[in-house]
Amino acid sequence: QQQVKQSPQSLIVQKGGISIINCAYENTAFDYFPWYQQFPGKGPALLIAIRPDVSEKKEGRFTISFNKSAKQFSLHIMDSQPGDSATYFCAACYEGNTPLVFGKGTRLSVIA
Amino acid sequence: EAGVTQFPSHSVIEKGQTVTLRCDPISGHDNLYWYRRVMGKEIKFLLHFVKESKQDESGMPNNRFLAERTGGTYSTLKVQPAELEDSGVYFCASSQGGGSYNEQFFGPGTRLTVL
After folding, report:
1. What is the pLDDT averaged over residues A25-37?
2. Are the C-beta atoms of residues A39 and A107 closer than 8 Å to each other?
3. Cβ of B43 and A42 within 8 Å?
4. Is the previous residue joined to A40 through a cis bond, with omega within 30 degrees of 0?
5. Mean pLDDT calculated for residue range A100-108
6. Which of B39, B43, B89, B90 could disulfide-link A102, Cβ–Cβ 3.0 to 4.6 Å?
């Protein structure tokens, strides 16, 4: 049973456009929702994270929208750039230093 | 400051052989995690050390996998004997101790191919 479902599997966006990746989770006990960005040959790196007590968090061009009642959260990348081309993973975990539960990942390609 | 390092970066072995993966976490990080990504699937948790103790090993697939963390520093993950389904990318991550949510820093991974 997959606890965090991520879509789409792949995404192609024009430079300057908005990239949107969606995730849904099952377990209401999850308390922390990070997004990781991974470039080829590198490990995942934390991009932005949110807790369920807020509905939105913005850092530069990256925004997380969180809908607790629907158990969904999404990543929006504004003004997408070719350098944003990477694989993005949503994740969830419980409070404390607990293991991350990942979605399957979205391969984003931003074309000029 | 050095990040999380993993060795080797790639390993190709035959079914039935033994492989040992190594992870060096960020200095001072009490928490060390092992994850695995099989092609096309999600990154899955294997186990979690706090210092030298196994905090959670619920993700270990079977007793062919053995993890150790010597003196609370580096960690090794041994697969013996390796099977075809063990192929994938093995990631190590570390985080500071204490607090509610400490960022997990990932290494570049070890790509294991079992033939």
Report:
1. 95
2. no
3. no
4. no
5. 97
6. B43
**SS3 letters across B50-85:** ECCEEEECCCCCCCCEEEEEHHHCCEEEEECCCCHH
Q: Which amino acid is at A81?
A: Q
Q: Which pLDDT value is given to residue B1? A: 66
Report chain A residues whose CB lies below 8 A from the CB of B31. Answer: 97
The nearest CA of chain B is from the CA of A18 a distance in Å of 24
Per-residue pLDDT, averaged over A19-25, amounts to 98
Q: What is the mean pLDDT of residues A30-39?
A: 96
Chain A residue closest to B36 (CA)? A102
Is B72 in CB contact (< 8 Å) with chain A? Answer: no
- As averages over each run of 10 residues, the pLDDT of chain B (115 residues) reads 93 98 96 95 96 95 95 95 97 90 95 98
Residues shown for chain A: 112
For position B45, what pLDDT does the model report?
98
State residue A1's pLDDT score: 63
Cα B88 off chain centre by: 12
Measuring CA to CA, how many Å separate A14 from each of A1, A9, B18, B82, B86?
A: 34, 17, 46, 43, 37
How many whole angstroms separate alpha carbon B93 and alpha carbon B32?
6
